[in-house]
Amino acid sequence: MASVPTVDKHTVSERNLDFLCVPRARVVEIVTTSGTTGKPLLWMLTEADVHRLAVNERLSFACAGLTAGDTVLVAVAMDRCFMAGLAYWLGLRELGCGIVRVGASSPTLVLEMIERVQPTVIVAVPSFLRVIADKARETGFDLRNCTVKKAVCIGEPIRDRDLTLNASGRAIKSAWDARVYSTYGVTELANSLCECDAGAGGHLHAEQLHLEILDDLGQPVADGEVGEVVATTFGVEGMPLIRYRTGDCAALFRALCKCGRTSPRLGAIVGRKNQKLKFKGTSLFPSMLAAVLEAAEGVEMFVIVARKENELSDAIEVLIHGAASVATLREALQARAKIAPQIRHVAREEIEALQMPPLARKRRTFVDLR
Ligand SMILES: [Zn+2]
C-alpha cells in the first residue's frame, strides 16, 4: 500500500472531473462537498454508488441500534446539493424505519412533528439540536420527556480526543435527555462511520472503506494515536479514490469494541491537518484549546488567533469576553492543553467580527493568520 502515492484534496479539486471513471450517461446523482476548505467539489454517483451509500448508512444506523421499529426525524437539508441528507434517507429506508424529513430550517416544525408523530430518533447537526432545545425552553416544550431518545449527531464533534462528551455533546444529552451518537462522513468517500452504544469511535465498514492514519511524514502512526485520516474506497464506480488524504486528523482504535464488533473505530476528529499549531516545541490542535475554553466558567465568547512567529513556533493568542480571570484560564489551559498562550479580554464586538467575517457561512472559534 505504501508504494502507492497518496492524493490530497488540492489535486482532486484541480482535476475534479478527471476523477470520474464512467461515462456521464451512467451518472445518476451529482452532489457537492461542503466546501469548508475551499471551493466545493463536484461528486458524481452511479446507480450502484447510490446503492452502496444506502448500504453504508444502513450499517451505520444499525450500529447506533436503530431498527425498523424506529421513527426518525431527519433534521438535515435534503437539498442544496448535499449528499448527507440523501444518504441518511436512503439508509433509513434500507432499515425500514419511519422517516420524517423535517429538514434543518425550522426548530418550530421539528417540535411540532415531535408532538404529532412521536419519533424515537433525530438526525441533525449538533448546533441545530441546541437551537431546537433553546426553542423548546422558550416555548415551554418539555423536550426531556419527549419520545426522542437517540440523537445521531453529524458534521460537528460532540466528543473530545479522549472520547468523553465535549461541551456541545453534554448540552445536547442534558437538554434532550437522549443518548447521543457521533457520526463522521466524507462526501468524497460516500461513506460514514457511526458510533455504537459504547460511544468509543465510529465503526468502520471494512468492505466499503480502508483507512490509514498517517503522520506528517506519511508514515502510519500507532494504534490510538492522532494523525491524518487517509482513505481508500471499495466498490465505488463513479469516482473511486485510492489513498485519499482527507485533511481530517483523528485516531483509529483496533481493539475489540465493548459492543462485540471487531471493526476498527475512528475517534473524534480533533482538527484539520493544516490547523495544527506549533508552540514552543509541542504541536496541538485549536480544538484542544477550544475544549478547555468551552468548559471554563465565565467565558461567554472566545476566539483563538494564530500568527506566524518563526519556523518553529506560532504565536497563539486567545481573545475572551466574560468575567473569567486571565490567570485562572492560563492555569486551566496549562493543565489540560499543556500550553499557556497569551490571553486578552476584549469587547464582544471584536470577537463577533473575528468569528463571523463577511461572507462566512459558519461561525468560527479559530482564526488562522499564519
Ligand atoms: Zn462498538
Notes on the protein architecture:
This protein has helices spanning 9-14, 47-63, 84-95, 107-117, 126-139, 167-176, 286-295, 326-336, 348-355; strands spanning 7-8, 27-32, 42-46, 71-75, 98-100, 121-124, 150-154, 179-186, 191-195, 202-203, 209-214, 227-233, 244-250, 252-253, 265-266, 271-272, 277-279, 282-284, 301-308, 314-321, 342-345, 366-368. It is α/β, with parallel strands linked by helices and 370 residues long. Strand 4, helix 3 and strand 5 (98-100) form a beta-alpha-beta unit. The relative contact order is 0.11. The structure holds zinc ion.
Biggest sheet, strands in spatial order? 5-4-6-7-8-9-10-15-14
- Percent helix among the residues? 25-40%
Tell me the β content: 25-35%
Distance between the termini: 34 Å
Q: What's the total number of strands?
A: 22
Low-confidence stretches: none
Mean pLDDT rating = 94
Structural class: alpha/beta
Bound ligands, named by name, code or SMILES: zinc ion
Rounded radius of gyration (Å): 21 Å
Figure out the total of helices: 9
Largest sheet: 9 strands, mixed
The rough form would be described as globular
Map the helices and strands.
Layout: E1 7-8, H1 9-14, E2 27-32, E3 42-46, H2 47-63, E4 71-75, H3 84-95, E5 98-100, H4 107-117, E6 121-124, H5 126-139, E7 150-154, H6 167-176, E8 179-186, E9 191-195, E10 202-203, E11 209-214, E12 227-233, E13 244-250, E14 252-253, E15 265-266, E16 271-272, E17 277-279, E18 282-284, H7 286-295, E19 301-308, E20 314-321, H8 326-336, E21 342-345, H9 348-355, E22 366-368
Parallel strand pairs: 1-13, 4-5, 4-6, 6-7, 7-8, 19-22, 20-21
Antiparallel strand pairs: 2-3, 8-9, 9-10, 10-15, 11-12, 12-13, 13-16, 14-15, 17-18, 19-20
Helix pairs in contact: 2-3, 4-5, 5-6, 7-8
The structure holds zinc ion (ZN).
